[in-house]
């Protein structure tokens, strides 16, 4: 599970239309293209599917710039793709803000093997590792990887390969050579224990 409370600014690349849920409830759907900064190479656009309960369909036309506050869910998909689905709260038309995605991430997943505890320029140790969250699409499972960094003095004993964790922190999205790079500056981490039914 990767769920983020975000503010997203981008350009509509698919005009809004009214759709219905399987329960027959109407909502407004449109597509958004957001330029994500690159650590190497040019900025790369990320496509986001947006759903809003109350929105002015006529105003949400292709090519228009919008800023949206809402809940972003990030899921794995076939062919190493990543789905971005945004449930919009507040939509601002023609904002002055720069294109991008900023906010807080909530993550639940499994720790990878690359756990490191380097020291910064001041000699303080910090924690760096990757973890992945897996989603089922049809009969298959697909993973999304997130890089974590934590500057807390105590390095948790439960951060070991294959451990299940929950983490919260600052979301950072960039690209490297055209590949998406998700990272989190963690402020809260705990071992994930599945609650019995």
Please outline what is shown here.
The chain has 197 residues and is mainly β. The chain is built from no helices and 11 strands. It is globular, with a radius of gyration of 18 Å.
What distance lies between the first and last C-alpha atoms, to the nearest angstrom? 19 Å
- Along the chain, the helix and strand elements come as EEEEEEEEEEE
How large is the count of helical segments? 0
Major β-sheet profile = 11 strands, mixed
* Helix amount: under 10%
How confident overall, as mean pLDDT?
A: 91
- Low-pLDDT runs of 5+ residues are none
What value does the Rg take, in angstroms? 18 Å
The proportion of residues in beta strands is over 45%
Q: Pairing-aware structural class of the strands and helices?
A: mainly beta
Query: What characteristic shape results from the CA principal axes?
Result: globular
Number of strands: 11
List the helices and strands and how they pair.
Blueprint: E1 2-20, E2 26-36, E3 38-40, E4 44-52, E5 65-77, E6 81-93, E7 100-111, E8 127-137, E9 140-150, E10 164-176, E11 179-191
Parallel strand pairs: 3-10, 4-6, 9-11
Antiparallel strand pairs: 1-2, 1-5, 1-7, 2-4, 5-6, 7-8, 7-10, 8-9, 10-11
């Amino acid at each position: 599970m990767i769920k983020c409370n975000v503010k997203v600014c981008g350009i509509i690349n698919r005009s809004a239309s009214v759709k219905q849920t399987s329960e027959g409830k109407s909502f407004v759907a449109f597509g958004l293209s957001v330029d994500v900064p690159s650590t190497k190479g040019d900025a790369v656009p990320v496509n986001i599917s947006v759903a809003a309960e109350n929105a002015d369909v006529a105003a949400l036309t292709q090519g228009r710039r919008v800023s949206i506050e809402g809940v972003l869910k990030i899921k794995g998909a076939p062919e190493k793709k990543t789905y971005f689905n945004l449930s919009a709260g507040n939509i601002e038309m023609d904002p002055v803000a720069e294109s991008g995605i900023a906010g807080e991430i909530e993550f639940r997943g499994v720790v990878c093997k690359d756990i490191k505890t380097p020291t910064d320029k001041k000699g303080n140790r910090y924690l760096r590792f990757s973890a992945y969250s897996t989603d089922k699409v049809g009969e298959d499972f697909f993973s999304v990887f997130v890089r974590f960094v934590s500057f807390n003095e105590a390095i948790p004993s439960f951060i070991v390969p294959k451990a299940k964790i929950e983490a919260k922190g600052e979301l950072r999205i960039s690209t490297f050579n055209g590949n998406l790079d998700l990272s989190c500056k963690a402020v809260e981490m705990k071992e994930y224990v599945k609650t019995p039914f």
